[in-house]
Amino acid sequence: MRRVVELLYEVKRRMYPGDRPGRLARAMNRVDAVQFATGVLAPRRAVTLEVRGRSTGRTVTVPVVVVDVDRARYLVSMLGENANWVRNVRAAGGRAVLRHGGRERVLLREVDVARRAPILRRYLDLAPGARPHLPVDRRAPLAEFEAVAARHPVFRVEPEPRP
Fold first, then answer.
1. Backbone CA torsion sign across 26, 31, 37, 39
2. Are 77 and 85 in contact (CB under 8 A)?
3. Between the CA of residue 59 and those of 52, 73, 105, what are the distances in Å?
4. What is the DSSP letter of 53?
């Protein structure tokens, strides 16, 4: 069974060459983004992130998993620093929209590396599709998550302040 899981993980990693979604991953992400945005047949934690593209200015949509830790919500980049949505969120000053049956304007604030480990562990519990991309077993000690925390940005989800 372990061999089958490793083979499946390898296939999933190959769908993201250079930590960028390939053709199949892009198609699957589009379908997931539509499904998560509507909230129909999607887990509550599965949402669509909408953020302004840093180059085009057009809205970019990405399916993501919201992680809950100590009554706070977080988004984690399974692909690391170079994920397009991470760079777009930073360029947008953290302003984004989360969709899951409705629209929620949010402000995403990057979490310090020192505070990421427990969030990354919880993320792997909630997002099985991310497990091939983080080089840590979800049951590993917290120290192993600390060792990879700098490579995986985490953003705290806060309500957008009213003007």
1. negative
2. yes
3. 5, 22, 13
4. -
Q: Are 107 and 95 in contact (CB under 8 A)?
A: yes
Q: Computed over its alpha carbons, how large is the radius of gyration of the chain? A: 15
> What confidence tens digit (pLDDT) does each residue in 90-147 have?
999 999 999 999 999 999 999 999 999 999 999 999 999 999 999 999 999 999 999 9
Q: Give the three-class secondary structure for 127.
A: coil
Question: b vs e for 141-159, b when ≥16 Cβ sit within 10 Å of the residue's Cβ?
Answer: eeebbbebbebbbbbbbee
Structural contact between residues 60 and 83, judged by C-beta atoms closer than 8 angstroms: no
Averaged pLDDT, 67-96: 96
Residue 141 · residue 79 · CB < 8 Å: no
- How do 103-110 and 154-159 pair as beta strands? antiparallel
